[in-house]
Design brief:
The protein has about 100 residues and is mainly α. The protein has four helices and no strands. The model has no long low-confidence stretch (mean pLDDT about 85).
Length: about 100
């Protein structure tokens, strides 16, 4: 039972670090969008939350049908690729896409 608890603690810590990193990235993107365009922060928040509102039902079906570990790894790889791509983007429309 002790090994399972330590794995759960490690997973919870990794998720916490990831969540903190996500919000740091949102804050940095907000500053960058504000510097590039006057209403950039509002547009950034719309672009961040509209996919959740639009695709939540479809993703729920996908989560039910695909193995959890495979989906988590694919989501992590996709998130890392987007983060790397954002480091090299300089135009606001590309950042918000």
């Amino acid at each position: 039972m002790q090994v399972r608890d330590s794995h759960l603690r490690a997973l919870a810590a990794a998720i916490a670090v990831s969540a903190i990193g996500d919000w740091v990235a949102v804050i940095a993107l907000g500053f960058r969008a504000n510097d590039m365009w006057d209403g950039g922060v509002a547009l950034l928040l719309i672009c961040l939350w509209s996919p959740i509102a639009l695709f939540a039902g479809h993703v729920g079906i996908l989560v039910d049908r695909v193995e959890t570990r495979t989906l988590a790894v694919a989501a992590g790889v996709f998130q890392a690729a987007v983060a790397v791509a954002l480091a090299f983007v300089s135009s606001l429309p590309a950042i918000l896409a």
